[in-house]
Write a structure and sequence with these properties.
Elements (H helix, E strand, L loop, with lengths): L1 H11 L1 E2 L5 E8 L6 E6 L5 H10 L15 E10 L12 E2 L3 H10 L16 E6 L7 E13 L2 E12 L4 E8 L5 H10 L9 H10 L2 H22 L12 E2 L2 E2 L1 H15 L4 H22 L3 H4 L2 H95 L10 H4 L7 H16 L8 H59 L8
Length: 509
């Protein structure tokens, strides 16, 4: 079934070829013959040399050893440590030609089900013994490839198979430049004398993956959190040059909110719970390997191997203790982040409430201003209504259709017998009738109109000033009411805070 599923998944995979190299480490009973080699397959020799490496032909054929010298252990790897293609770690993507990939898995006895793990998430580890009694192999899959950044997939992958008969570990290793594969390969070459243990390379990769960088990330997140706490709570010990959140006495709440999210993400980076489970799986696989290795003392019975195996077990215990501490540390950081986020939301809510209240006050002031304008318009209309009739009557009676002048001068004309005088007087009388004169009592009009107008205008101004004073008093009452409302709200909040504090079992003095 495994072979059928392997072929099925292989047919679905897309190929993104990467630069490939090989590594051989062999340890002999004569240490002077020990070899460490690492070379890249040339573009012209790739097809031929790749298969020669798999089948140990040509330049890769085993050495002819002197009598009494034997091969103790070794490591043979096909390596792609600088994978550059964007989709190299995408699901259902392989970096070798399908025939080469299938041949590598079959010849090196690598796990068939590794191709089913191209889409696994998080750090993934699996190890098991095959069921070949004559030549048992320990198969290992160790992979982390669920990250994509700037359009490129990132991660690393190990497929290993360890032969209990020969002590040789064969496998395929791939990683992007951002992973720890490069430094892991360097460490492997430096520890070539310990190649007898199949968990050497997986343990090196695990050590680099949860190295001091993880602790430093958590420390940086805690320091970041401390600055955020200072900005949110406005503590007195904060220095303006230390904080990027306070500029010109203004707190940048948007920046604080964004940094809270980023800090939360950093705390969750390489979450320790996943690696704790990974370490437990490592321990189970080590026990499974040792149960079979103890039955082959000719290969695994040396004190150096036993000491190496015990060091691996103790290293796993160290990782467990370290991850437990990181878990507690990260948990406290996350709780403090939650507190600061809740406090920030409360501050924003309070500011929004105060803003809404201020908007309501402004709207009420606008309503009062509109009302005052309407009252002023009404006053003007009232004054117009008072003076309009008098103005209209004065205009009408001043027209030429009405003549209220004194006619006494026309009645005192000369006698009728005096014709010349009569004619002259008649002409004069007619001229007097046509032409008008200014009444000597015209002063009465001005004497009454001007004082009355002044009195009315002054009275209206006094009344309007008193009305403005009343409106100002009303506005002050509105402001006082807002301040009283805010103080009441804060008092209620303090009461709730004090009632929460009383939940502690503090003895009364």
């Amino acid at each position: 079934m495994d072979q059928y599923l392997f072929r099925t998944y292989l047919d679905q995979c897309q190929v993104v070829e990467e630069t490939t190299s090989w590594i051989e480490i062999f340890n002999y009973s004569d240490e002077s013959l020990n070899t460490i080699e690492e070379h890249r397959f040339g573009p012209d020799e790739r097809r031929v040399e790749f298969h020669n490496f798999l089948h140990r032909r040509g330049v890769f054929a085993p050495k002819k050893l002197k009598e009494g010298v034997r091969l103790l252990n070794g490591i043979r790897l096909i390596v792609q440590k600088d994978a550059q293609e964007n989709e190299t770690f995408a699901p259902l993507h392989i970096s070798l030609q399908p025939n080469d990939y299938a041949r590598m898995v079959e010849v090196m006895r690598l796990p068939y089900r590794a191709i089913e793990g191209t889409s696994v998430v998080g750090p993934f580890f699996w190890a098991a013994l095959d069921h070949d009694k004559e030549d048992p192999h320990l198969q290992i899959i160790f992979r982390k490839s669920d990250v994509r950044k700037k359009g490129k997939t990132r991660g690393w992958e190990l497929m290993l198979s360890h032969s209990f008969n020969t002590g040789i570990t064969s496998g395929f290793v791939k990683g992007t430049p951002s992973s720890d594969i490069n430094v892991s390969i360097k460490t492997l070459l430096a520890c070539a004398s310990q190649a007898m243990h199949p968990f050497l390379l997986p343990m090196i990769v695990l050590s680099h993956d949860i190295s001091i960088k993880t602790d430093m990330k958590q420390r940086e997140a805690r320091e970041w959190l401390r600055r955020l706490e200072h900005a949110v709570s406005m503590r007195q010990e904060i220095l303006e040059e230390e904080s990027n959140y306070i500029k010109e006495t203004m707190v940048n709440l948007d920046q604080i909110n964004r940094d809270l999210v980023e800090c939360h993400s950093q705390v969750l980076w390489k979450r320790p719970q996943a690696y704790q489970e990974l370490v437990r799986s490592f321990g189970i696989a080590l026990d499974s390997f040792w149960s079979l290795a103890e039955s082959r003392p000719e290969i695994y019975g040396k004190d150096a191997f036993k000491a190496l195996h015990k060091s691996f077990v103790s290293r796993l215990d160290f990782f467990q203790a370290k991850l437990k501490g990181i878990e507690s540390y990260a948990h406290i950081t996350l709780e403090r982040l939650s507190i600061q986020r809740a406090a920030l939301y409360n501050i924003i809510a309070q500011k929004e409430s105060k803003l809404n209240l201020q908007m309501a006050v402004d709207q009420r002031k606008l309503a009062h201003a509109a009302k005052r304008d309407a009252t002023s318009t009404k006053s003007i209309s009232f004054l117009g209504a008072v003076f309009l009739p008098a103005t209209l009557l004065a205009s009408v009676f001043s027209m030429t259709f009405f003549n209220f002048q004194n006619q006494g001068s026309a009645d005192s004309s000369p006698a009728a017998g005096d014709t010349n005088n009569s004619t002259s007087s008649g002409q004069s009388g007619s001229g007097a009738a046509v032409s008008g004169t200014v009444s000597p009592t015209i002063w009465v009009y001005f004497a009454i109109t001007i004082p009355v107008t002044i009195i009315i205008v002054v009275a209206w101004l006094l009344w309007d000033k008193r009305r403005e004073a009343e409106y100002a008093k009303i506005d002050k009452d509105i402001e006082k009411g807002i301040d009283a409302m805010e103080q009441k709200i804060m008092a209620e909040m303090r009461k709730r805070t004090m009632s929460t504090a009383r939940t502690w079992n503090v003895a009364k003095t």
